[in-house]
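Memo to structure team: turn this sequence into C-alpha cells by end of day. - J.P.
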Amino acid sequence: MADEYFDVVIVGAGLSGIGAGYHLQTEAPDRSYVILEGRETSGGTWDLFRYPGIRSDSDMYTLGYNFKPWREAKAIADGPSILKYVRDTARDHDIERHIRYGHKVVSAAWSSEDACWTVTAQKDGKPVRIACNFLFLCGGYYDYDQGYTPDFPGRSMFKGSVVHPQHWPADLDYSGKRVVVIGSGATAVTLVPEMAKTAAHVTMLQRSPTYVVSRPAEDAFANWLRRRLPAKLAYQIVRWRNVLFGMYFYNLARKKPEAVKANIVKMVREQLGPDYPVEKHFTPTYNPWDQRLCLVPDADMFEAIKAGRASVVTDHIETFTKDGIELSSGEELKADVIVTATGLNLKVLNGVDLTVDGRHIDPAGVLSYKGMMYEGVPNLASSFGYTNASWTLKCDLTCEYVGRLLNHMKATGNRQVTPVNADPTIAQEPWLDFSSGYVQRSIGKFPKQGSKAPWKLHQNYALDLMNLRYAKIEDGVLQFGNPAPRANVRSAKEKVAA
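Reply from structure team:
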C-alpha cells in the first residue's frame, strides 16, 4: 500500500525534471505532482559535475527552456551559470516545493485494476511508496554513481593522483604539475585548456581523434538582438536560427560527409598552422556525426596548444608506470595527475525496475513510441533529448506532449494509455545510431526503435515538433481504456487516503 497519491510522479530534479514540472503545471494545472530526486540537491548534471571548466557543449539558446529566455552574454555557458538558470526556473515558477530530495526511485509497479503505478523510492535506507496515475522519468541517461574507467594495466603502480571527472576532488591541486587527460571527447577538450592555465603542462592522450570545432563563446548577433527586442522575441529568433542551422549542418554531414570532414579539418589547420600534424591528431576515421562533435569556445584548446601549455598525443596505453603512462610506441608520458575522461556508464530508464500487472519489463525487448513511451507499458513516458542537437529541444516537446496526453485522457474519461504495436512488418533497430563507446557499451540494454513511424526516432526537431505538438493524439497505436470507476468503487487515490 502506498503512503501518498499524486496524479503524476516525475523522477529527477535536473534540467529535464524542472522543465517537466513547469510544463505540467502550465498545460495540465489540475494535476497534482511530485518530483522525486535521489540526490540532496537539484540541478542534476550541472550540480554533479564540478571538474575545472565545466560548461555546455550546446548553445544556451537551444539548451535553455523554450519558455525561459537565456539572458547572459555567453551562449556557451559555464556549469555554475547553467545550474543557476535551472534553479532560478524552479524558484520563479514555484516548482521547488514539489521536490522531495533524497528519494532514489528503485522500482515501479503498474496495476491495471487500480490504474496506477506504485513507485518505491529509498529514503535514508528505508522504502517510501507513492502511488500515481502517470510516471514521467526525467533522470537523464547515465549512472550518477559511477563513471566509466577502463581497467588500465599497472594502475596501482602510479604514485600520483588518478581522478575521474564525474567525481572531481574538491581539494585536488594541480598547479605547476604535469597532467595527462585520457580521452578526446567533450569532457577532455573542456578540461585541457582550463587545467593548462595553471598546470605545468597538460597532455591530452587519445586512442583516436575526434572532430573538434571552434565557435565564439558569445553570440554577437544574439546579444545585439537582445538590446533591441523584447527578451522572449529575441530568444525565439536566435533559438530558431540555431535550430535550423543545426539541422542543415547535420543533414549536410549525412549527405556529403567527405566535404564536411574536409572543411572541419581545414578549420583546425587554420587554427593550429600548416606545420601541426592535424592529420594525426584531429582527423577521425569516421564520418562527422557518427559521434557527437566536440565544441571549443573561442578556440581555447587550440590557443593552449599553440602557447605550448597543452599538447595532444595519439597512441595506445601499454601500462601505467610509477611516474606516468607507457605507450605502445614505447614513449613514456610523465605525469603527476592522470585524469580519466573516459566516458559515462549509461543507465536504462533511470535504473527503475518496472513491472506491469506482475510482469517484469525488460527494456531491451520493447519498442520505443515516439522516443518517449514504451510498447506494452501503460502511463509512462521518459524525457530523452537529441544526440545531434541540444538535449532540451526534445525534452520540451516531450513535456508538452505528456500534458496533451493527460488532458486527452481526462476529456475522454480514460485512465490508461498504452502504446501497442500491431504491425508485424516493423523491424527492430538500435535506439541510437551512434558509434561512441559510451553508447556501444550499453545500447543492447536499451529499448529499440522501429523501422517505421511512430516507432522511428527522427533526431529532427522540425519533424518532432509536428509529431508531438500538432499531430492528433489518437493515432491507432495508442490504446486508451480503463475508464473511471463506478461511484461505488474506490479509486487508487481514495484507497491511499483511506
